[in-house]
Amino acid sequence: MSDRLVKLLNQLWLRASNKQRMPMLISRSHELKAGALCSVMLIAALSPGLALATLGEPEASVQSDVAQLQASFKATTPHTNFRVHEIQMPSGTALREYVSLDGNVFAVAWNGPYMPNLRQALGRYFDSYVAGAKLNHLDHNHLQILQPDLVVQARGHMRSFYGRAYLPLALPGGFNLGELQ
User: Fold this and answer.
1) What DSSP designation does 169 have?
2) Within a 13 Å sphere around the CA of 84, how many CA atoms are in the beta-carbon half?
């Protein structure tokens, strides 16, 4: 820290400890604003890198989701042509990730009292979801996005959210969409 900043902080501390009225700081406010702006921009720039993608990504991303969402790995259920990994989040919401035999996540589904972090769950498809969500609200409680490369269906209200997202072109042969819940 610069000597001037240390001196200023010491003066503020002395005034505060003497319970005197503190004057409004105008000096250096532009530097504080610039620092705050840089911090926000850095966080925003790193956020996509921190949100390790799941939908459309390899099965290894399931483990990164558990860590990123601060969740617990609940179960893996094998089926004939896919596996389901269930993650329980601290909020009580369950997130299920469907993995084909080739090792890629082709669908995610969720239910619980809170929405999961969809940036994390949808990964690189999150921007398509956001763009589609602006146009495709069925009503206040339902959302349906039907695109050639992404389908998202979500519904809910306070403390009760359900949804699923899948990649139509990546569905395993013979997969029944009824199993995606």
Assistant:
1) G
2) 15
Amino acid at 174: G
Q: What is the DSSP string of 62-121?
A: HHHHHHHTT-EEEEEEE-SSEEEEEEE-TTS-EEEEEEETTSBEEEEEEEESS---HHHH
Q: Is this prediction's pTM over 0.70?
A: no
Distance CA 67, CA 162 (A): 22
Q: How many residues does this entry show for the chain?
A: 181
Q: How far apart are CA 99 and CA 76, in angstroms?
A: 10
pLDDT in tens, 2-27: 566 556 656 655 565 554 444 444 44
- Taking residue 66's Cβ as centre, other Cβ atoms within 10 Å add up to 18
Q: How far is CA 25 from CA 28, 30, 33, in A?
A: 8, 11, 12
